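Module 6 notes. Inverse folding takes a fixed backbone as the condition and produces residue identities as the prediction. Think of it as a translation problem where the source language is geometry and the target language is the twenty amino acids. Below is one complete input and output pair. Work through it position by position during the lab.
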């Protein structure tokens, strides 16, 4: 659901004008929680809209032109990286801050490569989230120390740094990586479905896709493949 504001045009930012935030997350309950933390409890930050899918997010952000987008990484149809791919070139003044349950290196690096200005996890509290919004709006890059290390390694040229691109891993969508990570940890399909709020059939579809893309034949080979790439 996209909730329009009274004025779709971005206002000039000054001390009296709140930072206009748009929420993108496929869980309505989480979006409600973020709203409760930021609006109206934080005077200089206001939530002007929200979306639960990539298509809704693209349409809503284009319409409302917010200052900052809080962007979930893992959603169907490409997730946060797909939102960035579609909008970043045409709306360069909008700042994107990833807000995800995942703290995996490959997720952080993928969304930063796509154009996000920072990455925070959903363990953050309301005060910290508001401060992160202020900082990215002001031009800072915002990461926790551990996540910042992933980014520095990925973009570093020093010997021994993590390679910036893993072609095999890049074939997988963020959701396929989620499923693979849980599968490698020994979760049953039903448990993966419950953890990710998707159906068992959808889990099966993702596993089949991962097997095809990696050219592996069973979950045991997938587990070793995931372990080699530090997904577990």
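Target side of the pair, the amino acids:
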């Amino acid at each position: 659901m996209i909730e329009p504001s009274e004025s779709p045009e971005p206002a000039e930012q000054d001390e009296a004008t709140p930072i206009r935030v748009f929420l993108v997350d496929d869980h309505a309950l989480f979006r409600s929680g973020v709203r409760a933390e930021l609006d109206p409890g934080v005077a200089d930050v206001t939530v002007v809209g929200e979306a639960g899918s990539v298509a809704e997010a693209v349409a809503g952000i284009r319409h409302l032109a917010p200052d900052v987008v809080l962007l979930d990484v893992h959603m169907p149809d490409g997730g946060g990286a797909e939102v960035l791919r579609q909008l970043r070139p045409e709306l360069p003044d909008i700042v994107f801050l990833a807000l995800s349950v995942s703290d995996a290196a490959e997720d952080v690096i993928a969304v930063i490569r796509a154009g996000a200005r920072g990455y925070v996890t959903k363990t953050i509290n309301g005060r910290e989230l508001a401060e992160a919004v202020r900082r990215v709006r002001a031009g800072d890059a915002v990461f926790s120390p551990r996540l910042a290390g992933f980014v520095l390694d990925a973009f570093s040229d020093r010997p021994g740094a993590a390679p910036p691109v893993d072609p095999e891993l890049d074939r997988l969508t963020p959701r396929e990586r989620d499923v693979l990570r849980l599968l490698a940890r020994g979760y049953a399909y039903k448990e993966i479905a419950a953890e990710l709020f998707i159906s068992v059939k959808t889990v099966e579809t993702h596993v089949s896709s991962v097997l095809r893309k990696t050219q592996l034949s069973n979950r045991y080979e997938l587990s070793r493949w995931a372990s080699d790439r530090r997904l577990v």
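Reference fact for the lab report: The chain has two domains: 19-154, 167-228.
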